Amino acid sequence: MVRLVKAIRPAALLLGTSLVQVGLAAAGSPATPDLWSLGREQAGIHRISTLFTAQDVRERLASEAGLAAALDWCKRTAVTRVFLECFRDGYQADGSTLSNAMVRFRAEGFGVSGCVTPTQVGKPSTGWAPISCYTDPATQERVKAIFEFAASVSDEIMIDDFWFTDCTCSACDAARQARTVTLGDRTYPVNGDTWEDYRGELMVQISRDYVLAAAKRVNPQARLIIKYPQWYDRFHERGYEVLRQTRDFDGIWVGTETRDYQDPRWGGTVQYEAYFIMRWLGNLGGAKCGGGWFDPYGTTERTYVEQARQTVLGGARESLLFCYGSLQSETGPRNVEALRAEIPDLLAVAREVGRRSVVGGGGVQTGQQPPRERSAGVRLRRNARSAPGALP
Ligand SMILES: [Zn+2]
């Protein structure tokens, strides 16, 4: 990764490191803190949340025993908000199961929001299997129906980070060459004929018409949150536009799932990137930036907790633990035990981060820039004066 990230003076890094080290020293305390009370007390500083996928809703929240186990797990993990997902992998959760679980969590004092993961929505992309072709009219209509359903059960809806396309089918290719996005009977011009141009315009316009407008017609209170993936340097290739979409959506969220660098499947991302992307998108979104999101895949206890530290040090107001179901097996339980031991200190660090300003020289990370161009000093200097979305 090109190191044009925001430079931080050693003093600032030492601050964060020393705070976490103080926390580590205290983690062995024999007194087990009441994390539910602590989480509620500190939620205004930093909140911990988790997500139940649509499949988790079906398999883990449809019975009283499942609900009781989930409530207990959340309370023992300082989780004070839950996201109950309406759609994932072609499956839409049952409305009454969702509503019943939402009522139950609220009655127990939790914040409750919804989520949509746009995987297997409709016509498959020619690229990655779970992704869809949003040039396809029937798929566009399916998007609209999914978000109408989500808005009918929840006032706040996160969109997991599959809200992009990598399709190169003949319909997409013709639209790209025609420089035109077509949504139903509306057309939108595209400022170029590259895949980046077409996909950016397509995802911006379908977000406006078939996500935001559709959801708010059903539920005027609906707030839509776009969660940006961790792979920031390829956003523009697949239709994520952090400038326009951050303006359009009610909130943004940040993927800080860096995992283990050496992991054969998930590795290759340095831990510091979680801090960097949290800072970058946190600055870009300002008050719209809700928090960071990380998961247990390809992690050990040590790197799982490191994701939490980077997210907190990066200034997130909330840490979302993805997801309840995955945290019940494989590395999940060990990771959660390690995290629980650190939560009091992570919350203390969050309080200190909130009181302080980061100091240091600024680098530039624009909204829509190919990675190789970031290494060019001339480009860097030009963007420092003129590019929208550059870090201050
Ligand atoms: Zn296509």
Description of the structure:
The model is unreliable at 1-30 and 375-392 (pLDDT under 50). This protein starts with 9 loop residues before the first helix and ends in a 6-residue tail after the last helix. The protein has helices spanning 10-26, 35-42, 54-60, 64-75, 95-107, 137-153, 170-178, 195-218, 235-238, 242-248, 272-285, 301-313, 332-355, 377-386; strands spanning 47-52, 79-88, 91-92, 111-116, 156-159, 180-183, 186-189, 223-228, 251-255, 289-294, 318-321. It is globular and about 65 Å long. It has 392 residues and is an alpha/beta fold. The chain has one domain (35-360): Alpha-Beta Barrel (TIM Barrel). The protein is built from 14 helices and eleven strands. The strands form two sheets. Strands 1-2-4-5-8-9-10-11 form an eight-stranded parallel barrel, surrounded by nine helices. Helix 1 crosses helix 13, helix 2 packs parallel to helix 13 (332-355) and helix 11 (272-285) runs parallel beside helix 12 (301-313). The structure holds zinc ion (ZN). Zinc ion (ZN) binds next to helix 7.
